[in-house]
Fold:
Amino acid sequence: MAYTDIDAFSLGGGCADRLGLTTNQKQMKTTQKKRLQNHLDSGQSINRLSALLDLGIFELASRIGELEKDLYPIHKDRTTITNRFGEKVSVMIYSKKTNDAD
Structure:
């Protein structure tokens, strides 16, 4: 069976073009790193689950590493929680380092 229709994803152009976004929508798109930085600048902390659910960031540690490489002040706090299976697990919580934080 031959495929004769033009597949939009096989055409040139960026993802925004394929999704039919306008020029203004393309310019409004922010990177994961910038979304994370804005989140931390607002005084909020973040962990892996909230990064995925709230910001669409799957690899939080990678974005944190990118910010650290840019000398952005990151405070890391490892804490232990109980998961839904009753197991003790360790999670990392990230926030913007302030003068008060170590």
The longest strand covers residues 74-82. The radius of gyration is 19 Å. The chain has five helices and two strands. The domain at 31-102 is CATH 1.10.10 (Arc Repressor Mutant, subunit A).
